[in-house]
Amino acid sequence: MHTVDLVVVGAGAAGMMCAATAGQYGQQVVLIDHAQKLAEKIRISGGGRCNFTNRDVSAENFISGNPHFCKAALAAYSAQDFIDLVNSHGIAWHEKHRGQLFCDGSSDQIIQMLKSTCDQAHVQWRMPCEVTEILKTPNGFTLNTTEGPIKTRRVVIATGGTAVPQVGATDYGLRLAKLFGLRIVDPRPALVPLKFDPEVWQPFVALAGVSVVARVSVADRPQATPFVEDILFTHRGLSGPGVLQISSYWQPGQSLSFDLMPGVPVAQTLIDLKAGARQQLSSALAAFWPKRLAENWLAESGRRKLAEWSDKGLKELAAKIQDWRAVPTGTEGFKKAEVMRGGVDTSELNQRSMEARRVPGLHFIGEVVDVTGWLGGYNFQWAWSSGVACGRYIGESGTTSP
Ligand SMILES: Cc1cc2nc3c(=O)[nH]c(=O)nc-3n(C[C@H](O)[C@H](O)[C@H](O)COP(=O)(O)OP(=O)(O)OC[C@H]3O[C@@H](n4cnc5c(N)ncnc54)[C@H](O)[C@@H]3O)c2cc1C
Fold first, then answer.
1. Collapsing DSSP states into helix, strand and coil, what is residue 8?
2. In sequence order, what are the residues at sequence separation of 6 or more whose Cβ sits closer than 8 angstroms to the Cβ of residue 223?
3. What is the pLDDT of residue 133?
4. Distance between CA atoms of 394 and 25, rounded to whole angstroms?
5. What is the dihedral of CA 339, 342, 345, 346, to 10 degrees?
6. Which domains does the chain have, with CATH numbers?
7. For residue 13, which atom of ligand 1 is closest to its CA?
8. Reduced to 3 states, what is the DSSP secondary structure of residue 190?
9. Average pLDDT of 345-349?
């Protein structure tokens, strides 16, 4: 049986990028995916327009057991490098808020770009194809697949995280890492809506669909990153960008703190407004909030005129608005999560080659690694950067065995 240079398992964002890069160095690359349709996560990303990167990417935008691990790959292949690739394929894009870059058209353009880059680099496709076994051999690996066995010098695992199993996500990469004796950081849903106790949440159910800008943080952890973004009330809890962001940091049992009027000196504003005001308190709040939120938040007391409130009462109300505490009972789980937090422990991997220190020739890239990006194009940038760093390393190491 002929031995190829590289088998990449998982033809998603990181896998295609890695396969194409290694192929450009003249490596003989086989790219395997079990799915019927190519790169479903890219297709559904960014509401169908793929938020493919962010103008402003640094290690601070990622969560990992080792916050420095991602730096080498991000430096080796930057957001600008990916923007240049997108431009060279004539794909039109636009910037949304906070440096987030989206396709003007459909995310399918990114998939076709990656596929044609692989084709130009003579990557051989095996799809749909299942890998039933990966065996270490003296000179590399033998993969048993539903399309027959393949011998290879190196294997890259790019099977992604476990979020959204509906589109073919699996825990394959985690299981394989364990099989080879590598440590795993517990996988958990991230960028995910949060749920609350149904009884506690009852007063807020009527707010489902209302969204408001908030400063969201994990309570009593001032060192943790707060996010100022929209939050969205749902029937079971909270969602929206601000809540998705903080969900990646939240641990079960912790309380979240919401400043529901960030940047507004609420107490003083209400006290100032009170002088001679005949309006109801709820109308005063509605100048800052959606009317439904103002009315619901205050319930009966909102119908009282602002002038009837004591300064002390307004200060107490302001404190509740600017430090609203709520303890989620859990998340909406992997079915609704955008990404998986955790994965292959970065201490097991070389940060330049993504190669397992203890298993030469076996590499892990993309979301299966314990590097999780914020919402806003960072997860794709990690997939591109880790894929290219790994592909280059393999390309540059030529045909020498690991
Ligand atoms: C709804 C949604 C929207 C998102 N939007 C964005 C966004 O706009 N911007 C952003 O940066 N990130 C976004 N993400 C996150 C982003 O999609 C992922 O972080 C990224 O795709 C990870 O790349 P990857 O290559 O590691 O994994 P994936 O892209 O998930 O690719 C993994 C591949 O491995 C294959 N595979 C899995 N198991 C096996 C197996 N056993 N055998 C063979 N093949 C296998 C899968 O079929 C898949 O093709 C979004 C995620 C979701 C769920």
1. strand
2. none
3. 97
4. 9
5. 50
6. 3-189+338-396 (3.50.50.60), 194-331 (2.40.30.10)
7. 25
8. strand
9. 98
**From atom 23 of ligand 1, which residue's Cα is the shortest distance away?**
13
Query: What is the pTM (predicted TM-score) of this model?
Result: 0.96
Question: Which residues does 395 contact at the CB level (< 8 Å), separation at least 6?
Answer: 21, 22, 24, 25, 26, 27
User: Tens of pLDDT along 97-141?
Assistant: 899 999 999 999 999 999 999 999 999 999 999 999 999 999 999
C-alpha count within 13 angstroms, C-beta hemisphere, residue 104: 7
Place of tokens 């993504």: 354
* Average pLDDT over every residue of 55-78: 98
- Which of 114, 338, 378 should be mutated for ligand 1, with most atoms under 8 A from CB? 338
Nearest to 386 by CA among 18, 114, 85: 18
Grouping H, G, I as helix, E, B as strand and the rest as coil, residue 9 is: strand
Give the C-alpha separation, 183 to 97, whole Å: 37
